Amino acid sequence: MANPPLTVRTSDDGTVVLQPRGDVGVDAAVELRQVLVHLIRRVRPYRLVVDLAEVSGLDDINVGTLVAIVPVADELGVAVFLDNPSAGVADLLCASGVPHQRLRPVRA
Q1: Which fold has domain 6-104?
Q2: I need a labelling partner for 73 at 20 to 30 A (CA). Which of 4, 17, 47, 80 fits?
Q3: Which H or E run contains 87?
Q4: Residue/partner pairs of 69-76 with CB below 8 Å, 24 or more apart
Q5: How do the domains of the chain map onto residue ranges?
Q6: Is the overall model pTM greater than 0.70, yes or no?
Q7: pLDDT tens digits for the chain (108 residues)?
C-alpha cells in the first residue's frame, strides 16, 4: 500500500508532526486546511511541525494556507515550524510571507 498523501503523528515530547507528500496541489487543499485548522484550534499542541521533506511542490492555495496558519497559531499559543522544505519551496514560502525563522532546513 502506498503512503497516504498526508500523515499526522505525535512525537514523544508532544510535538505534532504533519507530513504531506508529493505534489501538494488543489486536490489536497481542503484536507490540508481542515487538518491544520483542527490541530491548531482544537488539539492546540505546544509545537506543530509541518515536515515538507517529501513535498515536491505546492500550489498557490496551499502556500496561502501555510502562510496564514503561522499568525493564527501564534495567537493561540501554538509554535509552527515548516521543516525540511526544498530550496524552491522555501523560497516560495518566504516570498509569500512566512518568516524565515519558521523554516528549518533539510536535515543532513
Answers
A1: Transcription Regulator spoIIAA (3.30.750)
A2: 4
A3: helix 87-96
A4: 69/36, 69/40, 70/98, 70/99, 70/102, 72/40, 73/40, 73/48, 76/40, 76/41, 76/44
A5: 6-104
A6: yes
A7: 456 689 999 999 999 999 999 999 999 999 999 999 999 999 999 999 999 999 999 999 999 999 999 999 999 999 999 999 999 999 999 999 999 999 998 664
